[in-house]
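Troubleshooting: if your tokenizer reports a length mismatch, compare your output against this known-good record of 222 residues.
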Amino acid sequence: MKSRKIYQTYKEAKTAARALNFKNSSDYIKNYRRDPQLIGDPSRYYPDFVSMSDYLGCPEDPRGKFYSYEEAAEIVRDAAITSMKEYHTLQVTDSRLPTKPRLVYANSWTSCNDFFDHHPKFRSYEEARRVARSFNFRSRHQYIQGCLRVDDRLHTAPDRHFLTEWTGWDDYLGISDNVEHLSYEEARQLIQERKVKNKAEYLKCCESAPPATQIPRTHMES
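Known-good structure output:
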């Protein structure tokens, strides 16, 4: 396999990088392949590497030691980072990105997925409830089975995630208390007509009942 040709000296690489007018290190990481002889992490290849500011010809940022959580998250998302391994490759090129973001951003940190913007979940109960209600789920079972298909920001177990705000599934899904349940005989006739044979089919039958009525969700008798 033919090896890729790269600039052999720091001076050559620096000249080429500066000629492309990268805005910052994240812009460089994202677009350095515009010149096939540039490499993603020059600090590891060139022993006389000084800094990304020197390499790119950008002035040193006079602000604090680390970016704010929001600034750092924007940088890693712009660079399309998808893992901590990729993050550390980016981090060595920018001293204002912490090596351990989970600790530095402890007050804002929720997960790597949120930091990289991979399927971030709703943090607000009110917002999650509003979105969940908009899809008109008829039951807890239907919600758990389908919530990620309609909006992957929803939690499959909101009752555990929003412990302090949780008041119940009916409130979360917006299921009205003014629902007329079928009588035992009516429910029995309906499940016989639909040839329901087990609990899974029974729950599915419950969810397809007319909006103004519901089949009681007690377990089927064996």
